[in-house]
Sequence to fold (1162 residues):
Amino acid sequence: MHARLSSLLCVVAVALTTVTAQPASAAAFSPPSQVIPGIPAVNPVTQPWIWPLPQNWERGSNTLKVSKHIRFEGRDARHPIVSKAIKRYQGLMFKKEDYPMIPYNWSTTDYKPSRSSLNTVVIDTKTADDHLDMDTDESYTLTVPVSGKAVLQAETVYGILHGLETLSQLVQYNPERRSYYIPNVPWKISDFPKYKHRGILLDTSRHYYTIQDIEKFIDTLSWNKLNVFHWHMIDSTSFPYVSKKYPQLSAKGAYSPRHVYTAKNIKHIVQYAKERGVRVIPEMEAPGHSTSWGYGIPEIASCLNTQPYFGYTVQPPAGQLNIAHPKTKEVVYDLIDEWAELFPDSFFHAAGDEVVMQCWSNDTYITDHLQKNNQTLMQLFEEFVLGMEDHVRQKDKTVMVWQEMLLEYHFSLPKDTVIQVWVGSEGVKEVTEKGYRTIVSAQDFWYLDLGFGRPRSNPYPEVQGAGFNHWNRVYSYDMRANLTKEEADLILGAEATMWGELADPNNIEDRLWPRAAAFAERLWSGYENPEGEALISSDAILRLLPWRERLVLRGVRAGPLNQGFCTRNPLDCFQPPNPDK
Amino acid sequence: MHARLSSLLCVVAVALTTVTAQPASAAAFSPPSQVIPGIPAVNPVTQPWIWPLPQNWERGSNTLKVSKHIRFEGRDARHPIVSKAIKRYQGLMFKKEDYPMIPYNWSTTDYKPSRSSLNTVVIDTKTADDHLDMDTDESYTLTVPVSGKAVLQAETVYGILHGLETLSQLVQYNPERRSYYIPNVPWKISDFPKYKHRGILLDTSRHYYTIQDIEKFIDTLSWNKLNVFHWHMIDSTSFPYVSKKYPQLSAKGAYSPRHVYTAKNIKHIVQYAKERGVRVIPEMEAPGHSTSWGYGIPEIASCLNTQPYFGYTVQPPAGQLNIAHPKTKEVVYDLIDEWAELFPDSFFHAAGDEVVMQCWSNDTYITDHLQKNNQTLMQLFEEFVLGMEDHVRQKDKTVMVWQEMLLEYHFSLPKDTVIQVWVGSEGVKEVTEKGYRTIVSAQDFWYLDLGFGRPRSNPYPEVQGAGFNHWNRVYSYDMRANLTKEEADLILGAEATMWGELADPNNIEDRLWPRAAAFAERLWSGYENPEGEALISSDAILRLLPWRERLVLRGVRAGPLNQGFCTRNPLDCFQPPNPDK
Fold:
């Protein structure tokens, strides 16, 4: 046919474009004519199509059919969290695309699948305790034999959830045979995450997300084996939280009665997330970025929507908590009490970012207070912040704060404080060399909301690289760069961010996925496999392309990584030598 | 309440966040307490919420209710195109959002709407002829009196379509009264487009769009008063067109039997577009970017998927038409014949972009031909291209080509050729000073697909500014910069582009809208109003924010332009002085 036919790979690739001579009317999928049944297709994939890549995996060369009536056996399969997950995965495993863009037959090593089918998966956990926290064991092992039962074992139900996800990704749809199968049996997978804290920040204040939007967001986190939803619920722009004690905060500070989160909503979300192995960590944005509090309780706000806002805030509207007013502490502590109950997680984010001093130094209530108490503004600020954090600690919570608390204001933070780095990747070194634990959200790599121009009201600091972070840049970032072993051990994990200036339910999925998947793999799989070989993007792209297709099949509006041709024929696009590599 | 209450504007703004003390349960929308019924709210909008802005408009200060049973009168209302449009707009006019983000009461000048309602719109066109082409008159006048019938007059049905769109945008939903109204009656609008050719290029080869996707794309074009769908249907990556004479082209070159466009599909799309005032101009991508032709008819291709592809193509896969082979001309001319019939538009795009000489100079068929005929490669290339264009001209079509034909290869193009500028905005001067008409798609302002990193297989030239074009940059570009009056008169219009490397149905709407709306206003409204005053982005943003909200209400997944707070309280974000302005 043409010059490239000498390569068997190309046969596979071209085959998919030559399925029939009657394209428009053909309903059935004819086998690609160049593929001779019974003769294995070339399989150029050196890693399995599992995202994120498991730590340890072995595979064979047989093909196993999968019954659509697959059963999950064992007492542990009846654990409420597991049984619900099984129901979900019985749906997710059997999605199909009759004309897939992926070279699905890459993963077919044997065109004569076994006569028997996979009918049963045995579920086995060590404990029925379903407490979920940072130290929860998420490991699992999965074996899929050539015949007989598959076995999924884990310490906890959360390991089972990850194992079910992996199992679902092993199942491929074969459009020629119109059936589901697992290629490359037998499988032996033994897997665990490299980092404990793997999250995404979602900002529901700048734009509102419905409960359904948040559910879908959590679903997609869990499919990527991410385990933290950092809920940036409130900010200057709106106060959607319906407080029991202070209903006026949302009544006057939310965008509308529709744009709110009630206690019932929050409990639902927390439970929904838990059932998917996702912790929900609330961020109480304070004392900066707090305009919206002031509509409901004016006396606790300084520089409330001062106009022009320049110099009073990094973005409109201006407004910070009045840190001198006794009512402010009262409200903040009461809200911490409410959230401590609503959010069972042991982490609590006490914020502390992007404070603008001029807001306070132009507030006579505050300057009078300073004069009367012979205090500097920074002393008052530190007193307020440490008081707030202490109140959180009294609830038996670990305090997370943004990096400014330590690196810019140099407050005396207890050593158990977890510092979230965001301004730039160099902050990781600065925080860990001071001996603090860190969660990394380096703007120059893992802010996924940036790169869409500078909104006129949103003067981000012009950090080098603060533009759009391409998936390859996201994937390339090594948090451990320039760190000693001791410093690197202080990294608990990381969070990618989806701030809300230019994101809302209309575009969030394309903004997040598949880039956040690239991030997720770094957190789960790490930087090297157990043999010490680096995980590199040239291998990753061959798995990320089909993973994006699977996300789309599952209903996620993830944007494409490249031309459809490259999804179909990855080695024709991503073969070395590649100057962009 | 707080410092900003002195401003009446702020009352309106804050009012929207204070609708009720029982936010979660409240179903009804209580009137903002600070707004005293009967006293007009401050109306800071100096331009009406119509996008794109009409050329001439006058408005009054009364409020008119609109009946949901509004009737359209007159013989011309029964024209098939008009009557279908009326049905659509009877739906589009009455969308509602009970808790809108826009300061809807900005546009309410009188809290006592008229007792009478707008029940009737008289439709009146000069001609029933519905031929649609570049010179079709699209002007209209619309009057909405304080009471009685509204009148929509136009030369053609296409003017009526634009007038219906404008009318639909005048209709606002009032969530307090749960009713629809037109603010600021009486209205007198007399409107027409500044540029005749106002298009968007959609690339359905790199990624496939279903017929429904394309319909929704066309709907959104028409709502923005854009009138050209430049259909970049085929490219190297796939050949979705099902040719009557050469069915093997799509059978082997499409991604699959599902990823095709049949003659029936195309006729449907052309008719669908026509009914919305949108011309469909097909682009026959040739002789570059033509790999996909070679799977069905191998002898007409050079360097078919040569690997490694570097040096043979600007992006994978390599493959150009074999311009020496007699069969190539035959196939191209036959396809032109088929398309000339399927696409009635008088414009036909003959491409000619991004040819890589090495593909041909390494093809012995071509080098042998050159030797035998004592010809240079450039002579052969020019002969092929001019032959192809001449064949298009024989079909009574105006030939459009990409700028390389003129500016890079310096071919002897007839003066009636329309040159599409893309490499950079400086090309507009270069083309028009040679006396050619142009359609402007300057990459540095109006490519809407760029800015998402450099895909590894897609080495775009690193044009300065070829990143993400923010809406304000899109809006700021003046095509006439540095041109003489004569040169400027050669600008027929422009096209924004949505190339398909990183766009598909999952993300196209956020990528296009509302940025393409900013583009659309420049094309329709121009750069100055009839009084010669510049149309500037600080005014535009106040209209673009609610227009984006309306697009979302109509089902378009357009991303937000800024924080929700700024949609709600635009003057708190966009008041001068603004350093970003």
In short: Chain A has two domains: 38-193, 197-526.
